[in-house]
Amino acid sequence: MADLQHDIPTTTEVGADEGLPDDPFTQDALDALLVQAHALLAEHPVADGYSGLPWALRHLPWYDLELGEAAVDTDVPRMREGHVGVLFWSLHLPEGPGGDRATAATLELLDQVRSVVEAHPDGLRLAGTAGEVIDARNRGRVAVVPGPAHAGALDDSLGVLRILHTLGVRVLSLVGTAWAGERGLSRFGEEVVREMNRLGVLADVSGASAATAERTLALSKTPVLCTRSAARELRPHPANLPDRLLVALGEAKGLCMVPLTAEQTGPTIRDVADHLDHVRDVAGPECVGLSGTYDSGAVHPRDLADASRYPHLIAELLRRGWSETELSLLAWGNVQRVLRSADFMARAAQDRREASNAKRAELDHS
């Protein structure tokens, strides 16, 4: 399936109040829910599964994320207002996963991530484990986790995978390669997933074929992510998941991170909440998360234009009867569980398994 990253980042929202059902809540009641949402997120901050900020910043001659930057959707003041505690920074390429420079371009974006974090030490901190995310939060910084990166950046080399992990990459999208296609994972693709488990790199199957997603869920010992997938039952976008895959994801304790984009979820905040309701009900409350997809070129639903707006979404879920436990899992707990699981499984796998030097030419053409 085609990559979801767009070329030119924009700050756009759509949707209108017309056509929404009558709301029985008074304005005072809605304001009280917003206060409650802020209090909840102060204890359980948002773990945002996808940000296109590294690529968006490449277009700017100068920026200061700590002071505030109107040219992008995400800066430190707005993340603090939205109670964002950890942000996954995409290493996706706007031209897609292919191309002769996929590896070099991914390394350049990874260098951009490091440069941006180093230039904003009072607001940002690089993190690669659950413990480092907690440490960043305790120090009052937003944790930045590099990834997802395109699997095409591996250039069919497990050695490149290990180097990318050493440089900080923690999520890899299994799309756009000969070994993770419409027919599923090849033998080499299965070896890639095993090596990812050994390293602690999470598999992202958003936009992957159903066969690839199903085989990855069956094979991976570490929870699988869908960093930008909503419910196909509600909106037939190709990156959204059918119920059978949501059920499988829930059984495997994976994580579906619902994107705040009009294209995938709809034009209003209530549309986004409908998808969150559906994923929770089908996959379970331990398998649903949030994906802002800010600075990726996506158009956002009304009232969700930038990273400061998460409390408004949480207030809508409170209005629908979500419990504090469910909301704490949605915002923070589920991502922390997945990161802890990746750390634990990597330590266990490294005790049992040596680094793989498998070659695609040997496995897939033997």
Automatic annotation (TrEMBL):
GO biological processes: proteolysis
PROSITE patterns recorded: RENAL_DIPEPTIDASE_2 (PS51365)
UniProt region (Disordered), positions on chain: 1-23
Pfam families: Peptidase_M19
Gene Ontology terms, MF aspect: metallodipeptidase activity
Superkingdom of the source species: Bacteria
PANTHER family: DIPEPTIDASE (PTHR10443:SF12), MICROSOMAL DIPEPTIDASE (PTHR10443)
Protein name: Membrane dipeptidase
